[in-house]
Amino acid sequence: MNIETIKETTKFLIQKGFHFPDVGIVLGTGLGQLVNHIKIEAEVDYADIPNFPVSTVEFHSGKLLFGTLENKKVVVMQGRFHLYEGYSLQEITFPIRVLKALGIQTLLISNAAGAINLNFKKGDLMLIEDHINLQGGSPLAFKNVSEFGERFTDMSEPYDLNLRHSIIEIAKAQNIILHKGVYAAVVGPQLETKAEYRYLKIIGADAVGMSTVPEVIVANHLGLAVLAVSVLTDECNPDDLKPVNISEIIALAGQAEPKMISLFKELLKE
Ligand code: HPA
Fold it and tell me: Where is the Nucleoside phosphorylase domain (predicted)?
């Protein structure tokens, strides 16, 4: 990690037309359709951005977009980087540092997750209120961290209270079920065993997934206001566990997507 690579990438993107975004948005698995609502003003493939990791997961299109959505300037990560693709925690969170350098103040995150809390059903949305990092490391564990900010980042309220309050009200007004809960991040890419699902429930997780937490840690390090919503794509019942079907997970994320888009758009309006 060094400041120069962040500066170089930021400069490149400004030259490509990424001018003063207010809000960053990370679109997770199966949640790419929000981009159809954006008036796109600039667009670059991850592969063409200097210092960016290159996305290897074929169902992520891997692009950075800039444009207008609900009168806000947004920069959108269409597809994210995962630890299970073999990158380091610093590499997968590098784009978040670049978005901050471009000027964002707020970060909206989506992901697909499994429901540990069995009161939640597949296809439902869950607002992440807190998280448990089970990825075995920190994206802030590197030598010269003080160049970037403080060493010991506070995590007493990693998800912005005002944004949470707003989206809860929006969901009510739109009659969209929005559960609230704790998201546990694992490395993956293997799914969990029955014993692991039992463990996740015992330690207080409502949902489990393979992303988001590193991004949220770095966003807090950078002082960004963060909001994150999970689409629950499977029900993780250890007493009745069926083999996982990844295409079903992606399809379910796609089906729930209009709800997520509707919430995010109204949130941007406010
Ligand atoms: N476990 C981990 N990640 C996931 C799951 C799951 O059950 N569902 C969607 N992403």
Answer: 23-269
CA angle, residues 257, 260, 263, in degrees to nearest 5: 150
The two three-digit tokens of residue 183, written as one number: 């998201």
Residue 114 CB less than 6 A away from ligand 1: yes
List pLDDT tens digits, range 157-173.
Answer: 999 999 999 999 999 99
Report whether residue 236 contacts ligand 1, using a CB cutoff of 6 Å: yes
State how many domains the chain has: 1
What CATH number is attached to the domain comprising 244?
3.40.50.1580
234 Cα nearest atom in ligand 1:
8
Task: Give the residue, by CA position, lying nearest to ligand 1 atom 2.
Answer: 209
Average pLDDT taken over every residue of the chain: 93
pTM for the full predicted model: 0.94
The per-residue pLDDT for range 86-133, each reduced to its tens digit, is 999 999 999 999 999 999 999 999 999 999 999 999 999 999 999 999
